[in-house]
Amino acid sequence: MDAKHRIADLEAQIAARDARIAARDVRIAELDARIAELDARIAEQDARIAELEKKLAALLEELGRNSSNSNLPPSSDSPAARGESNARKRAAKGATRKRGGQPGHRGTRRELLHHDGPREHGFSWLDGDGKP
């Protein structure tokens, strides 16, 4: 009987082990399904991220567009962009001077015309007081 008892005990252990293995197989199948679901979700999100990055790049390119890098007229540039553009041009030329007359420049001006009173205009239809 000792051998029969030992065999029954071993068969019970095997049955318990088979039950644990079956439970683990079910859990593994559930986890595999969850992994497949998450992989599909990640693939969708990767596609969405790529789409949004492409849209962002297009918007940034459009935002950075001005008259110096596109066919837009200079009047379409914002005042800030114009200031940056002019500053870049001055820096590229190496100019460090401020705008306007520079120290030591003699300057030129128009001479004033000499005014010696009222002039005869030659309109005969006006009388002496300037009324018709």
Can you walk through the features of this model?
It is built from two helices and no strands. It is rod-shaped. It has 132 residues and is mainly α. The protein has a domain at 1-60.
Topology:
Layout: H1 2-63, H2 79-93
Oligomer: single chain
Annotation field: number of helices: 2
Query: Helix/strand-derived class?
Result: mainly alpha
- Give the % helix: 55-70%
- List low-confidence stretches: none
Most strands sheet: none
Indicate the radius of gyration in whole angstroms: 46 Å
Tell the overall outline: rod-shaped
Strands, count = 0
Order of helices and strands: HH
Mean pLDDT: 84
End-to-end Cα distance = 150 Å
Beta fraction: under 5%
Brief summary of the model shown:
It contains two helices and no strands. By secondary structure, the protein is mainly α. The chain has a domain at 1-60.
Question: Key terms for this structure?
Answer:
single chain, 132 residues, mainly alpha, rod-shaped
